[in-house]
Amino acid sequence: MGWSSGSQLMEEIIIALKDVGIGPLARLRFYRRIIPRFQDMDCDTLYECLNLDDAFADAMEVLEDK
């Protein structure tokens, strides 16, 4: 079973991180830690957030290569 609302939650997280001024490197490090947790909970729609933040897209790419 998938967790389709996970991408909506991740979108809110991305917006919040950017709004409070967290820099791209810190966001990348954060995303690399949080994305696997979402995936562990069957969230399979995170690709919907790729266009929201280059750091998020980079983290997804790095994690896909593993």
Report on this model:
With 66 residues, the protein is mainly alpha-helical. It has one domain (6-64). The chain is built from three helices and no strands. α2 (24-40) crosses α3. The longest helix has 17 residues, at 24-40. The chain is globular. It starts with 5 loop residues before the first helix and ends with a helix. The model has no long low-confidence stretch (mean pLDDT 93).
Uncertain segments of ≥5 residues (pLDDT<50)? none
Number of strands: 0
Overall number of structural domains:
1
Morphology call:
globular
In short:
The chain is an all-alpha fold and 66 residues long. The chain has helices spanning 6-19, 24-40, 54-64.
Task: Summarize the helices and strands and which ones pair or pack.
Layout: H1 6-19, H2 24-40, H3 54-64
Helix pairs in contact: 2-3
Keywords:
66 residues; mainly alpha; 64% helix
